[in-house]
Predict the 3D structure of the following.
Amino acid sequence: MLLGVIVWILTVVICYFFLGHYWWFPPPISEHGQAYDAQFNATLWVTGVIFFLAQIALGYVIIRFRDKGGTAKYSHGNNMMEALWTSATALLFIGLVLAGTRIWAAVHFAEAPADALRIEVLGKQFAWSFRYPGPDGKFGRTDIKQINDQGGNSFGIDEKDPAGKDDITSASIKVPAGKPILLILKSRDVIHNFFVRELRLKQDIVPGMEIPFHFQADKIGVYEVPCSELCGLGHHQMRTTLEVMSEANFEKWKQEQAAQK
Amino acid sequence: MSSPVVHAHGAPQGFIRRYIFSLDHKVIGIQYYFLALFSVFLGMSLSVLMRFHMVYPDAKVSLFEKLWPTGAAGGIMTPELYLSLMTMHGTIMVFFVLTTAPQSGFGNYFLPIQIGAEDMAFPVLNMLSFWTTLLALVVMVSAFFVQGGAPLSGWTAYPPLSAVGPLSGPGEGMGQTLWVISIAIFCGASLMGAINFIATTIDLRARGMSMMRLPLTVWSWFVTAILGLLGFAVLLAAGVLLLLDRMAGTSFFLPAGLVVNDQILNHKGGSPLLWQHLFWFFGHPEVYIAILPGMGLASQLLATFSRKPIFGYRAMVYAILGIGFLGFFVWGHHMFMSGMNPYSAMAFSILTMSIGVPSAIKTFNWIGTLWGGRIRFTTAMLFALGFVSLFVSGGISGIFLGQPALDLYFHDTYFVVGHFHMIMGVAAIFGMFGGTFYWFPKMFGRMMNETLGKIHFYLTFLGVYAIFTPMHFLGIAGNPRRYADFTNFEFMNNLMPVHKFMTHAAIFTAVVQLIFVFNLFWSMRKGAKAPVNPWDSTTLEWTVSSPPPFDNFAGKHPVVNHGAYEYSVPGAAKDYIMQSDPA
Amino acid sequence: MAGSTTADIIGGRGAPPAPRDFGGGDGDSGGRGASRRASITGLLVLLAASVMFFAAFTSAFFVRRGMSNDWVDTPLPHILWVNTGVLVASSLALELARRALRAGRRAAFNRFWTGATILGALFLCGQYLAWRQLNDAGIYLATNPSSSFFFLLTCVHAVHLVGGISALGYIDVQALLLRLGPSKRTAVDVSAYFWHFLDAIWIYLMVLFFFWG
């Protein structure tokens, strides 16, 4: 009987914390982020109701059907009810997945627009590097033998390739607001993961693969980027930031970088 | 039927044949149980150390330095030590606790008795299986004591991190090699066990024990054995490939162009994703290996202590089979963010949601079983009810993670950690606690102390909710998992109060487990003598003395006339009909 | 007995299993509970695990082959064809031995069974020669993915074969010492089935190497 009450109290407390948003998502900064939050909320309501009803029912049967000396009901079940709740849960669960398909499709099935700004992302133990193609719009060739982290050439940009001369590299990522961005994710040692909470986006970076990944951020600000796939002893300090700038500021930044070269 | 003399040789004499290299499934079951008990306390201690480090990363504790002179030089735990604790915590808990106790421990002891057999089909294989498991545990723990310490690549051991040797971090040298070898040995042990479980269930059932009269515990052990058989064979293959990449210079998982720690590696063309596919093809069924026996046990306990037949026995059997079958087609949901084909993610996602259906059926049927019952609140029953509550709480978060769209945020956050700890961690462990309180009288001939048991239950129940519910909020706030400390990120610093709360809850819950250990060992010596059938249960193990004789049925051959859960049958003399009662 | 197992699993309509056949002394020491039926089930279950094991390597083989540009087919040493013949011959010899045993011709059984065991050992020697030939041609385990899989799969198969030969050898010794009582029939059958399975796996591997190399 005590257990029934405890289950009820726990349920109410848990629901209270979920409804109170005490520890919650940061506000979204993109259209995708808003769609994501809508899907999350839909799922939260569906599962929340199931959670609440199931736990309350559990607490109820514990209290109601405790041994009070009568006899238990002899029953082997009810096929009608089995069929009912099987199909109901199936519909509900599959429905949720299908509802989320749109979001997944926008991230992974849709190609990035042709005019998207291309940025290469390099993960390595335990730092990030980002590369912009410069005014010629082309990335220079890379050669792993020319990698030199101290000399600022984490990518190993080939000195002999003229297309690489104007490439800008940076330890944090800056993007213009409201513009489509196409990331090309690369790792040179182990698996890392590029994650921006405010974008509601995440993608593993796998050595040996170049994974394209596009997004568009609309709100100006600086957002933290934590590595989200275990990459070794420095995993917890593999931090960088995503800075969403106004387009003018972004152009200014690019010019400053180019001037420093 | 003639009366074959099965135990022609009689019970073996002498301590070694009887208790050490025993062929008796009951002794082997107890050996497994204690192996798992040792492992669970080891694994739990590691987790307490981890939780401590997360909230007090700079604390100086001289004990740490004594335990790990290099990993905690000066008494301050290094991040690499944290990661090796995490790897070993996960590995030990998954393999040596969740796979070992409910299946190999209770299964070994009770599967033959519940089906009316004298022993497992292959007793020598059974003994070998235990000793290989122990060998695997010894090899695994020895990884702590070699150069560089235990591996830091997590229980999933994703290459390249796990495949390029000490270049990628301390512990990735000898420690990781020992890890792979231990896992390979464990695979061998599990295969031997699975062969025994399957052959025994199919061929050694007593007269009248048709499949649809099997207790649900037997059904879940049987299906778990099939999952283990197919899953561990694949993990063994993956382990061999990883070992070759590490030691023989092959490139199964290692691509070209790797530059690790400023060294250019001479590998070509391998695929890190290949490991993930092979690993999770095993790894997802492994989740069900951990939880299915708990589900079977919960069913058994709920029926027994609510004095009602299982609601929808057939549906329960089909749900177990459905979970087992679908379990092999959902591994990709661990890889939504891995860079695999996004279209296959959709397929995996729909299959994943489908597996929620049999799980939901089970939950509904459990509540249906309780409905209209006459519930006796023994400690075993409390744990079974706790199991249902945790199963719901842990299962429901799977609805978020099974959607690739939502996984775009939740992958590798604490949301995942909270999800799987609730369901395959503590729900499964509640199953084990329930099993311990229920079967202890049969195993050791004495009753456990119910008062201590109930105190332990309530404190543990509140404790695990206090540890694992906040993890979901951390996940929603975006806190990544497998971080040794959180001080480098502003948003994580803001979450420290939650982490502190969880750490304190974890220390509290860990201490509470001492009540259980005390109860266990005290009751073995001082508990009240157990009658043959203390719980008025129906299954065959409650027809024999506590503990059962060497050949289980003292030369008799039980004949089964009833289904497994005939409680409160109208018109019957008592409120239960044993399976072997006359028709 | 035959068929009841499947019917029982699927239908489960109370058909009680047939009385158990405790041959007494079948299988391992003590023989507690190890009936002939369970031995055969156990073997089938073992074979299922083995199939999964090879299936895992096969899927790795095709994934690795499909995605790489560094795959160089490994030339099959010609001796493999001889080895294949030897292995098939040993399986045939086993069947002849079993037929002889059923007809009660113990001497013929001993001859055929010993022959099969020796052929099995010859196959292993032949495999060793094949590995040496490849090594002499400068092809090693880590040379390229194709050779990695070649050495891996042939080695894994050879390890299985060592187990098979031990079983055959054990029965052969028992037979030659005239200790092959009726209770060892299960062991004879189970070992023979296992051997045929290894034979089939080998032929499968040859097909794999020959076409996808």
Chain B is about 60% helix and 0% strand. The first strand of chain B starts at residue 259 and ends at 260.
